[in-house]
Design brief:
Length: 318
């Protein structure tokens, strides 16, 4: 299989092989109940990976996901009926809680586009600042969410599908439309393919990068809100490990870290690969330490295939 075909079909093939392998090794793996479990666990990572995809498509990276999730999580817990404040904003509180994530995205975009700071360093600094704000909001005592309607939504199902999964699918559909049927999506691909050429073509590079970071931050905030609704409290560590998962899903799905190749559907497949792998290893009794090693090996292999097409582009001819 050529490198180009592997980027398109390799992750899907890997997903099928993993599913069949675990289904044969552990009969309970393929049950409807476990399928719902996998779907539920995919929800927040899929939302985060969708936002991250647009940043990576433009050749950038966002390391502030966990900070955006933390600030939105604490904001939600303090705005709806909770154990610390007298506020009961209900649905309005849910909407307002996403705004801190959007603010994190705005700050990322401004630092990268206006100040010229590499996204790796810029978003790392913003992550630290956002975590500091979340700690101040927490006050050392994570607020409990006592809004029963919000808790019921976070834990409930609609037609046997987890509610959070339905939200994630709507976000994925929105991402697909943005990528394939808007200027923003086309411009994102062009910027990742060659930023200088995109500028010469008249594409507003800075504006598009700002929009990508705001989208990623907003979806990170939404992820923090949904995760809090599910566990019933606002917490600084609500997004622990989620940045790593989002970037991994994007890379495994076939979106190039150099930008210009891939998309949200690729990231969706990558998210499923990670979820099936993690769930299947639990079913067959693999220890957590070995699970981490296996996941790391898969990331290295995916990165190798994702960058294999560049091996001749930068080769020095003597």
């Amino acid at each position: 299989m050529s490198s180009k075909r592997w980027r398109h079909w390799g992750p899907c093939l890997a997903l099928i092989v993993l599913w069949i392998g675990f289904a044969l090794a552990a009969p309970g793996f393929a049950s409807a109940e476990n399928l719902r479990t996998i779907a539920g666990r995919c929800a927040v990572p899929l939302i985060l990976a969708t936002g991250m995809t647009f940043v990576v498509l433009q050749g950038e990276v966002d390391l502030s996901i966990e900070g955006a999730m933390a600030t939105s999580s604490l904001t939600l817990a303090l705005l709806v009926l909770n154990s610390r404040t007298g506020l009961t904003l209900g649905r309005a509180g849910v909407v307002l809680a996403v705004l801190p994530g959007a603010c994190v995205g705005i700050l990322n975009g401004v630092v990268v586009t206006r100040w010229g700071v590499p996204s790796f360093m810029a978003t790392l600094g913003v992550w630290s600042a956002a975590m500091g704000v979340a700690m101040l909001l927490s006050g050392g005592e994570p607020p409990l969410i006592r809004d029963q309607s919000l808790r019921a939504f976070g834990l409930g199902e609609t037609l046997f599908v987890p509610n959070l999964t339905l939200v994630a699918l709507m976000v994925l559909a929105l991402g697909f439309v943005l990528q394939n049927y808007t200027r923003f999506g086309r411009y994102s691909m062009a910027i990742g393919g060659g930023e200088n050429f995109a500028r010469l073509a008249g594409i507003p590079v800075a504006r598009c990068k700002l929009a990508a970071f705001v989208l990623c931050g907003s979806l990170s905030g939404l992820g923090g809100v949904l995760a809090s609704a599910q566990i019933g409290l606002g917490h600084v560590d609500i997004g622990f490990g989620q940045m790593f998962t989002a970037v991994t899903a994007v890379v495994i799905g076939g979106t190039s870290l150099n930008g210009g190749r891939g998309g949200v559907l690729h990231s969706a497949v990558g998210t499923l690969v990670l979820a099936v792998l993690a769930n299947g290893m639990i079913f067959v009794g693999i220890t957590p330490d070995v699970q981490k090693a296996v996941q790391g090996a898969i990331i290295l292999i995916a990165s190798l295939f994702a960058t294999w097409h560049l091996r001749t582009r930068f080769r020095i001819v003597k």
